[in-house]
Design brief:
This protein has helices spanning 2-17, 48-54, 112-115, and strands at 31-33, 38-39, 60-62, 72-75, 80-83, 88-92, 98-100, 120-121, 125-130, 133-139, 145-151. It is an alpha+beta fold. It has one domain (27-155): Pathogenesis-related Protein p14a. The strands form two sheets. Strands 3-4-5-6-11-10-9-8 form an eight-stranded antiparallel β-sheet, with helices on one face. A three-stranded mixed β-sheet has the order 2-1-7, with no helix packed on it. It starts with a helix and ends in an 11-residue tail after the last strand.
């Protein structure tokens, strides 16, 4: 019995000795240029592989649209998602990065001088036609921006994920 315990202990210690340290991938800082419609030079039409190469620290990835999920590369810890098949980028209010111009939290009433009149408007969002496609801004109950979507599609062709 002592031999068996000794062998088991040696095997366990051997397993611990071969354990490897795995470095967590490091991403460059996220810089969103709203007027250009890009994130670190990536656009909504960028391929999944290109997004993963530029930002290897993604927290999730779906390769093909399904009934319940949209394809894309997701960064839940940074509150930014690239929906590659639907060709848009979504930025949430807890976004960790730099926005140019800094629209997150801006008041709905102060956007005209920067973006002009929205092409479509609803109680909770405005959609602006941009040179690259469209920009959709969502507002909280106080009328402050809490979500941004950038797409290379026109407002009429935009199809969002739930």
């Amino acid at each position: 019995m002592k031999n068996f315990c000794l062998v088991a202990a040696l095997i366990f210690c051997g397993q611990l000795a071969t354990a490897q340290l795995v470095a967590k991938p490091v991403c460059p800082p996220f810089t969103v240029d709203i007027m250009d419609g890009s994130v670190n030079g990536l656009f909504p039409k960028s391929a999944i592989v290109e997004i993963q190469t530029t930002f290897p620290c993604y927290t999730g990835m779906v390769e093909k649209d399904s009934v319940t999920k949209c394809a894309g590369v997701f960064f839940s810890d940074r509150d930014i998602n690239f929906y590659s098949n639907r060709r848009y980028i979504e930025i949430g209010e807890k976004f960790k990065g730099k926005l140019t111009p800094a629209l997150m939290g801006a008041s709905r009433g102060g956007l005209f001088s920067l973006l002009g009149y929205p092409k479509l408007k609803d109680a909770g969002w405005d959609a602006f036609q941009m040179g690259y496609g469209c920009l959709v801004l969502y507002y909280n109950a106080a009328g402050k921006i809490n979500k941004i979507q950038i797409s290379n599609k026109s407002i009429d062709a935009l199809k969002l994920c739930e």
